[in-house]
Amino acid sequence: MVRAREAVPVAPVGGRLAPIGVGAVEITGGFWAERRAVNSASTLEHCTSWLEELGWLANFDRAAAGQRSERSGREFADSETYKVIEACAWDVAGAADPQARETAERLYQSLAARVVAAQQPDGYLNTRFGGAGQPERYSDLAWGHELYCAGHLIQAAVARLRTAGEDAFVRAAYRVADHVCSVFGPGGAEQVCGHPEIETALAELARATGVDRYRQTAAAFVERRGRGLLPPSLFGSAYFQDDVPVREATVLRGHAVRALYLSAAAVDVAVDTGDDDLLAAVVRQWDATLARRTYLTGGMGSRLMDESFGDDYELPSDGAYAETCAGIASIMLAWRLLLATGEERFADAMERAMYNIVAASVGRDGRSFFYANTLHRRVAVDDVDPSTPHPRSVSGLRAPWFDVSCCPTNSARFLASLPGYVATADGDGVQIHQYATSRVRTVVRGMNVDLDVETDYPVSGRVAVTIRTDAAEPWSLSLRVPEWADGGARLDGVPVVGPVARVTRAFSSGDTVVLDLPVVPRLVHPDHRIDAVRGTVAAMRGPLVECLESIDLPPGARLEDVVVLPEPPRLEAGRVVLRGVTVEASQQLPYRREPDRSSRSSEPFDVVLVPYLEHAERGPSAMRVWLPLATPDPEATA
Amino acid sequence: MVRAREAVPVAPVGGRLAPIGVGAVEITGGFWAERRAVNSASTLEHCTSWLEELGWLANFDRAAAGQRSERSGREFADSETYKVIEACAWDVAGAADPQARETAERLYQSLAARVVAAQQPDGYLNTRFGGAGQPERYSDLAWGHELYCAGHLIQAAVARLRTAGEDAFVRAAYRVADHVCSVFGPGGAEQVCGHPEIETALAELARATGVDRYRQTAAAFVERRGRGLLPPSLFGSAYFQDDVPVREATVLRGHAVRALYLSAAAVDVAVDTGDDDLLAAVVRQWDATLARRTYLTGGMGSRLMDESFGDDYELPSDGAYAETCAGIASIMLAWRLLLATGEERFADAMERAMYNIVAASVGRDGRSFFYANTLHRRVAVDDVDPSTPHPRSVSGLRAPWFDVSCCPTNSARFLASLPGYVATADGDGVQIHQYATSRVRTVVRGMNVDLDVETDYPVSGRVAVTIRTDAAEPWSLSLRVPEWADGGARLDGVPVVGPVARVTRAFSSGDTVVLDLPVVPRLVHPDHRIDAVRGTVAAMRGPLVECLESIDLPPGARLEDVVVLPEPPRLEAGRVVLRGVTVEASQQLPYRREPDRSSRSSEPFDVVLVPYLEHAERGPSAMRVWLPLATPDPEATA
């Protein structure tokens, strides 16, 4: 039997930093502990109920019984079950509450058994293809999502393998992977799946099992892409990233989740094979994407129509798609780049998306979700029925489920695995990348290193790390200084320069290091090339993007009429506050000879913001992140 | 036999102004004469070739032969043939070239015969429904476009009736209309078509024939709408304007062409029945739509996904949909409102869309078309094959045809009928609303009034009107003063106040009146509520919106890096010219602590614009209408 390696979501063979796994990092309190508790207590059961109610789970039972004529859901419906299984696998090892671990184990067992029963004798496992009355296996690689589903199954099995060890489900995944490799591996069919996912999955399975064939097949899929193996979609070959080979591309493009999953796999292949050129190609694409195709929230993918990135600087607030899954995928990619390079800017990007995409997408109840994460909702829209899947990806409130429901289950597996994204170790010491009250246990050069992190982050910027082990020799504790701290961070009272606060010492148990980050509200200005937000500002506090909801406006004021004054934001009763005015609306063609000087304005009033991640929690509301700045006007009294 | 009334596209029974028909207005030279000549000489044949090649015409032959199993094209394909027939019908009376009139007559006869042959014994005529192996008649009113197609057939017949008199095609249209009225008229099925068109068609047929039942059915369709008679689309009931009754709505919403066609019909019903409340409701919706949901080009409908208006001030330049058919529909509605009210602001709106949507959509060759009319193309896109229908509505160059090809044929019928939208008469005299070198013949209080209009408009702002008849008593010549003239218009050298320049006199033959309009380039500033274009300016010259194409930039400059300096535009060698600089691109996350002051800029250079209607005529180019204004910066040297 193959043994689990450390319980990490990603286990590169090479690279700069070694991840510390779920279980070895325990998140015990604060923001993410709360979110994870809700995920364990509510979201897993919520997702499973919908899978059952809609018949997506019954698809496995019907397939097992050879009765496939009645299949429910879209072609990728199997993957939702796999993501819930993956979430359970992480929770079995990582849920803070022992009761939650037991529940997760029970749910895991029941779901896994139904999946395993549907496997074909030759290892193939998909409820949508290959059965009586169904399309042939692999007859629609572009859109059928067969390998995508297989990838999610394998990822779930890798999580299980690393947190609990081999079992029937894991062995089923081996057989799925073997089947995929025999059909598509080196020497096999020169084809790729329309939606990348199998690539990272096989790379991880290779890492977890040591079977090199999985890695070779993952590498083959990565290298095949960009060579026109898929029929162009209505949106062109870029939709599938089949327009340019990964190593030649200069920026992420096409369908955002596809692009990010593919890039993550490219990093896996690059790191495991020491292919620096491939790694550099992905870093180059990441940098260009961050500079020109990323929202303030970390959201990626501007276009609704094809869920794609769009062109450089095409970042409309109101049309922002910024799919939750793309946010999660960007975290997966950034984590791999952080492990590969050790550069904290990747952890900055993770933090941005964790707070402003993942935490914003999942409602506080753990039973409602945004699929698209707009930055500007012009009209309060009450379009969600909590008892019905939402037919569209864009909604005015968080919805319980969607006709295409990738995001809820993706959030669930990410939140369950989140401890695995917090800290790393290397020969020099321990690096803390994300801040949460937590306990971290690892080994540095043979020395056991335990530490406790205590913080109210992001409400407070104080992060206290207490070492719980004595060290025979010096090691380094490295704490990320977020880019947004902008020179304002202090380590034990001393200003920190650069992206890392580091203390190197032969620590004794009880030693405490305190990082202070300036989580005072600040204004953020956009690059002038982003047409959609020219002339506006946004407020942030620490990693949190703030927004204005119409529900917080004075009576009678309309969101579209509000402009803010160029004054520093204040913090009042825990809320970020600006000053603003409303400007009278015109009823003419809105194009004029003279600049619109906003002169007929109201008396100034407090513009009270709310963290973006809390938007739409108080019912339907118009909302905007980027706030128009009052135009300078000598005549204006305001 | 019912006789043709005057050859006008719209013949209201009531209202302020009476239109002067095609034929009575002859456009003899200048901008529109050239466009109309190309329409007659190229576009009609071009459209017919595609209808033939794709089998959309053969659908009628197959239906006539009772062999319907092989039908080609979308559910609304019949309507494209009807629009070409309508264009031919107008050209028979209105084409400047006698040869073109003959060609139009031949084409009319051949197309009309094939349509007539497909009519069922009971009058029903549609190639997609009701035949063997086809869906039942009226089994999919929401999406089937049956009544929409019937409406276009009837409109074509009305054009024929008014320009040439009754014939077999016109009689076929009577029978179609009779069939529609018997099924859906008062006392019939309380249903509506998903796409309005039958309403205006029946209203016009009532006007052309005097048969009141047609008007009653048109009125019934208008009044039924907004009462949830259609199943909500994925985009909601507003998509079909089935959310709120016409008289209660406050703004146009949902699918733009649907909304505009419905509103046009509501005006027809209102005017013919003296229903001032209904007219006021449409005027209110028009005003709100112009103030908050209309592009600088006159384009309407912001959203690609459902071709809909979107929310107030949701007017992205790069995502602008602004469908050509919506532009034409806005002209049809504005013309009706002009006739009903006599207010020239509606003619202003027509002019805006005529030059910047219709003339921009149709290529100079008359064989290429934009379906969507964006205001910002970030990247030069060479995505059109002149030998293949374009699969999408958005294209980087004008395409020969589209899978959904409503726009080419709609442009063709509009251009053919254009003389009917130029001038009106009333008891007081003659009103010229659109300027073109032309001959106008009408009757005022029993007096024959002939006049010649001579102008290079819009290249020049000089419009000379010479009266060719002697008048026994005074009458008024009224000339529209476009809103953009902004106080700069002169009539015979005297400044004009207000939207009309009027001379009242017992004119003698040879009398000339000269209107001078200031077609100097000017800057236009957007309302500060239009987020997408905050901090930018656009240039216009007369009615023409100008744009910047990347092909006109200095070598190495990228469109996204160009900002213009706040200086008045100049006219040089016929081109509008601004001054601008390029600003260095950053490679970081484009959100910063400090405002982006564009300080690292190039030396200033000339930014040479081109009329929007000529964009993409020189090959693929990035393009933008709204140009970012340089941010004031004391340190900047530029």
Description:
The structure is a homodimer. With about 650 residues, the first copy, chain A, is an alpha+beta fold. Chain A folds into three domains: about 20-420, Glycosyltransferase; about 425-515, Maltose phosphorylase, domain 3 (Sandwich), CATH 2.60.420; about 520-630, no CATH class. In chain A, about 35% of the residues lie in helices and about 15% in strands. The first copy, chain A, has 13 helices and 24 strands. The first copy, chain A, has helices at about 30-55, 60-65, 75-95, 100-115, 145-165, 170-185, 200-210, 210-225, 255-275, 275-290, 325-340, 345-360, 405-415; strands at about 20, 25-30, 375, 425, 430, 435-445, 445-455, 460-465, 475-480, 490, 495, 500-505, 510-515, 520-525, 535-540, 545-550, 560-565, 570, 575-580, 590, 605-610, 610, 625, 625-630. Chain A has a seven-stranded antiparallel sheet with strand order 2-6-7-8-13-10-11. In chain A, strands 3, 14, 15, 16, 22, 23 and 24 form a seven-stranded antiparallel sheet that branches. A five-stranded mixed sheet of chain A has the order 1-4-5-9-12, with no helix packed on it. In chain A, helix 5 runs parallel beside helix 7. Chain A is globular. The N and C termini of chain A lie far apart (about 75 Å). At the A-B interface, helix 10, strand 14 and strand 20 of A face helix 10, strand 14 and strand 20 of B.
Reconstruct the topology from this structure.
The structure is a homodimer of 638-residue chains.
Chain A: E1 18-19, E2 25-29, H1 31-53, H2 58-64, H3 77-94, H4 98-117, H5 146-163, H6 168-184, H7 198-209, H8 212-224, H9 256-273, H10 276-292, H11 324-341, H12 345-361, E3 376-377, H13 406-417, E4 423-426, E5 429-432, E6 437-444, E7 447-455, E8 462-467, E9 475-480, E10 490-491, E11 494-495, E12 500-505, E13 512-516, E14 521-526, E15 536-541, E16 544-549, E17 562-564, E18 570-572, E19 575-582, E20 591-592, E21 605-608, E22 610-611, E23 623-624, E24 627-628
Parallel strand pairs in A: 5-9
Antiparallel strand pairs in A: 1-4, 2-6, 3-23, 4-5, 6-7, 7-8, 8-13, 9-12, 10-11, 10-13, 14-15, 15-16, 15-24, 16-22, 16-23, 17-19, 18-19, 19-21
Helix pairs in contact in A: 1-3, 1-4, 1-13, 3-4, 3-5, 3-13, 5-6, 5-7, 6-8, 7-8, 7-9, 8-9, 9-10, 9-11, 11-12
